[in-house]
Amino acid sequence: MKITTILGSPKKKGNTASILGVVEEELQSMGHDVDRINLSNKSIKGCLGCYKCQGTDDAAACVQDDDAVIILGKMIASDAIIFSSPVYFWGVSAILKALIDRSFALSTKYGSPDHTSILAQMPIGLIVTGEDAYKDNAECIFTTFEKFREYLLGKNAGDMYVGECSKSDDLAAQYRKEAIQFAHDLTS
Predict the structure, then answer these.
(1) Which CATH number does the domain housing residue 79 bear?
(2) How far apart are CA 134 and CA 39, in angstroms?
(3) DSSP string across 54-74
(4) How many domains does the chain have?
(5) pLDDT tens digit string along 55-83?
(6) Is 19 helix (H, G, I), strand (E, B) or coil?
(7) Full domain range(s) for residue 63
(8) Is the alpha carbon torsion for 181, 78, 155, 13 positive or negative?
Protein backbone atom coordinates (compact mmCIF):
# COMPACT_ATOMS: atom_id res chain seq x y z
CA MET A 1 0.00 0.00 0.00
CA LYS A 2 1.01 3.59 -0.58
CA ILE A 3 0.36 5.43 2.68
CA THR A 4 0.55 9.19 3.11
CA THR A 5 1.13 10.47 6.63
CA ILE A 6 0.47 14.09 7.47
CA LEU A 7 2.33 15.64 10.39
CA GLY A 8 0.34 18.62 11.63
CA SER A 9 2.79 19.57 14.36
CA PRO A 10 5.19 22.50 14.08
CA LYS A 11 7.75 20.37 15.96
CA LYS A 12 9.61 18.04 13.62
CA LYS A 13 10.89 15.98 16.55
CA GLY A 14 8.07 16.47 19.08
CA ASN A 15 5.70 13.95 20.63
CA THR A 16 3.38 13.75 17.63
CA ALA A 17 6.28 13.20 15.22
CA SER A 18 7.72 10.59 17.55
CA ILE A 19 4.53 8.51 17.75
CA LEU A 20 3.87 8.93 14.03
CA GLY A 21 7.45 7.76 13.39
CA VAL A 22 6.82 4.48 15.23
CA VAL A 23 3.72 3.88 13.12
CA GLU A 24 5.62 4.72 9.92
CA GLU A 25 8.51 2.39 10.81
CA GLU A 26 6.08 -0.47 11.41
CA LEU A 27 4.26 0.20 8.14
CA GLN A 28 7.57 0.21 6.27
CA SER A 29 8.65 -3.02 7.97
CA MET A 30 5.39 -4.54 6.69
CA GLY A 31 6.42 -3.58 3.14
CA HIS A 32 4.28 -0.48 2.67
CA ASP A 33 5.45 2.68 0.90
CA VAL A 34 5.17 5.57 3.38
CA ASP A 35 5.41 9.24 2.46
CA ARG A 36 5.38 11.77 5.31
CA ILE A 37 4.19 15.30 4.60
CA ASN A 38 5.39 17.75 7.23
CA LEU A 39 2.93 20.64 7.17
CA SER A 40 5.18 22.97 9.19
CA ASN A 41 7.21 23.80 6.08
CA LYS A 42 4.24 24.08 3.70
CA SER A 43 2.23 27.08 2.56
CA ILE A 44 -1.46 26.32 2.98
CA LYS A 45 -4.00 29.10 2.65
CA GLY A 46 -7.43 28.90 4.23
CA CYS A 47 -10.45 27.80 2.22
CA LEU A 48 -12.11 30.73 0.44
CA GLY A 49 -15.58 29.18 0.54
CA CYS A 50 -15.98 30.03 -3.15
CA TYR A 51 -17.46 26.60 -4.02
CA LYS A 52 -15.65 26.50 -7.38
CA CYS A 53 -14.22 23.12 -6.39
CA GLN A 54 -17.74 21.71 -6.24
CA GLY A 55 -18.08 21.71 -10.04
CA THR A 56 -16.20 18.44 -10.47
CA ASP A 57 -16.23 15.16 -8.60
CA ASP A 58 -13.11 13.58 -10.10
CA ALA A 59 -10.35 16.07 -9.17
CA ALA A 60 -9.38 18.46 -6.39
CA ALA A 61 -10.35 21.54 -8.37
CA CYS A 62 -9.28 24.23 -5.93
CA VAL A 63 -8.65 27.66 -7.47
CA GLN A 64 -5.82 28.49 -5.06
CA ASP A 65 -2.20 27.86 -5.99
CA ASP A 66 -0.34 26.66 -2.92
CA ASP A 67 1.00 23.49 -1.30
CA ALA A 68 -2.50 22.29 -0.34
CA VAL A 69 -3.25 21.47 -3.99
CA ILE A 70 -0.12 19.29 -4.17
CA ILE A 71 -0.94 17.59 -0.84
CA LEU A 72 -4.54 16.91 -1.91
CA GLY A 73 -3.12 15.27 -5.06
CA LYS A 74 -0.87 13.05 -2.92
CA MET A 75 -3.84 12.12 -0.75
CA ILE A 76 -5.82 11.12 -3.84
CA ALA A 77 -2.90 8.99 -5.10
CA SER A 78 -2.66 7.14 -1.76
CA ASP A 79 -4.16 3.89 -0.59
CA ALA A 80 -4.47 5.15 3.01
CA ILE A 81 -3.92 8.39 4.94
CA ILE A 82 -2.90 9.13 8.52
CA PHE A 83 -3.46 12.61 9.91
CA SER A 84 -1.61 13.59 13.09
CA SER A 85 -1.64 16.63 15.36
CA PRO A 86 -1.06 17.79 18.89
CA VAL A 87 -4.05 19.21 20.75
CA TYR A 88 -4.23 22.99 20.33
CA PHE A 89 -7.06 24.60 22.30
CA TRP A 90 -9.36 21.54 22.00
CA GLY A 91 -8.63 21.20 18.28
CA VAL A 92 -5.97 20.25 15.79
CA SER A 93 -3.14 22.60 14.84
CA ALA A 94 -4.00 25.57 12.62
CA ILE A 95 -2.01 24.26 9.66
CA LEU A 96 -3.76 20.88 9.78
CA LYS A 97 -7.14 22.59 10.16
CA ALA A 98 -6.38 24.62 7.03
CA LEU A 99 -5.65 21.42 5.09
CA ILE A 100 -8.80 19.77 6.42
CA ASP A 101 -10.82 22.82 5.32
CA ARG A 102 -9.24 22.68 1.87
CA SER A 103 -10.23 18.99 1.66
CA PHE A 104 -13.70 20.35 0.93
CA ALA A 105 -12.53 20.10 -2.70
CA LEU A 106 -12.41 16.29 -2.49
CA SER A 107 -16.14 15.69 -2.14
CA THR A 108 -19.24 17.01 -3.85
CA LYS A 109 -23.00 17.07 -3.29
CA TYR A 110 -22.72 16.51 0.47
CA GLY A 111 -26.05 15.80 2.12
CA SER A 112 -27.68 14.53 -1.05
CA PRO A 113 -28.12 11.01 -2.43
CA ASP A 114 -25.53 11.95 -5.09
CA HIS A 115 -22.79 12.66 -2.50
CA THR A 116 -19.45 11.56 -3.96
CA SER A 117 -15.84 11.73 -2.85
CA ILE A 118 -12.54 11.09 -4.54
CA LEU A 119 -11.46 9.40 -1.30
CA ALA A 120 -14.51 7.14 -0.94
CA GLN A 121 -13.62 3.99 1.02
CA MET A 122 -10.06 5.28 1.61
CA PRO A 123 -8.74 4.09 5.00
CA ILE A 124 -8.15 7.25 7.05
CA GLY A 125 -6.61 7.27 10.52
CA LEU A 126 -5.95 9.93 13.15
CA ILE A 127 -3.20 10.25 15.76
CA VAL A 128 -3.42 12.99 18.39
CA THR A 129 -1.10 13.82 21.27
CA GLY A 130 -1.83 16.07 24.21
CA GLU A 131 -0.64 17.12 27.64
CA ASP A 132 -3.90 16.23 29.36
CA ALA A 133 -6.24 13.27 29.60
CA TYR A 134 -8.65 12.54 26.76
CA LYS A 135 -11.80 13.73 28.57
CA ASP A 136 -12.46 17.47 28.40
CA ASN A 137 -9.42 17.86 26.17
CA ALA A 138 -9.28 15.78 23.00
CA GLU A 139 -12.66 14.14 22.59
CA CYS A 140 -14.05 16.96 20.42
CA ILE A 141 -11.15 16.47 17.97
CA PHE A 142 -12.17 12.87 17.40
CA THR A 143 -15.87 13.76 17.08
CA THR A 144 -15.09 16.46 14.53
CA PHE A 145 -12.62 14.24 12.67
CA GLU A 146 -15.22 11.49 12.36
CA LYS A 147 -17.55 14.00 10.66
CA PHE A 148 -14.68 14.97 8.34
CA ARG A 149 -14.05 11.30 7.52
CA GLU A 150 -17.77 10.81 6.83
CA TYR A 151 -17.73 13.85 4.52
CA LEU A 152 -14.90 12.21 2.57
CA LEU A 153 -16.80 8.88 2.60
CA GLY A 154 -13.59 7.45 4.05
CA LYS A 155 -13.19 4.28 6.05
CA ASN A 156 -12.35 4.64 9.74
CA ALA A 157 -8.94 2.97 9.86
CA GLY A 158 -8.26 3.79 13.50
CA ASP A 159 -7.80 6.60 15.96
CA MET A 160 -5.10 6.92 18.61
CA TYR A 161 -4.77 9.37 21.46
CA VAL A 162 -1.56 9.68 23.44
CA GLY A 163 -2.39 11.79 26.46
CA GLU A 164 -0.58 13.24 29.40
CA CYS A 165 2.49 13.73 27.22
CA SER A 166 5.54 15.39 28.55
CA LYS A 167 8.74 16.19 26.73
CA SER A 168 9.91 12.68 27.48
CA ASP A 169 12.49 11.11 25.20
CA ASP A 170 10.99 7.69 25.90
CA LEU A 171 7.43 8.60 24.88
CA ALA A 172 7.64 6.49 21.72
CA ALA A 173 8.85 3.53 23.78
CA GLN A 174 5.93 3.94 26.21
CA TYR A 175 3.38 3.83 23.40
CA ARG A 176 5.25 1.59 20.97
CA LYS A 177 2.91 -1.39 21.30
CA GLU A 178 -0.19 0.78 20.73
CA ALA A 179 1.45 2.52 17.75
CA ILE A 180 2.41 -0.80 16.17
CA GLN A 181 -1.16 -2.07 16.62
CA PHE A 182 -2.43 1.16 15.02
CA ALA A 183 -0.26 0.43 11.95
CA HIS A 184 -1.66 -3.09 11.65
CA ASP A 185 -5.25 -1.91 12.12
CA LEU A 186 -4.80 0.71 9.41
CA THR A 187 -3.78 -1.88 6.84
CA SER A 188 -6.17 -4.68 7.75
Answers:
(1) 3.40.50.360
(2) 24
(3) GG-SSS---S--SHHHHHHHH
(4) 1
(5) 776 677 889 999 999 999 999 999 999 99
(6) helix
(7) 2-6+14-187
(8) positive
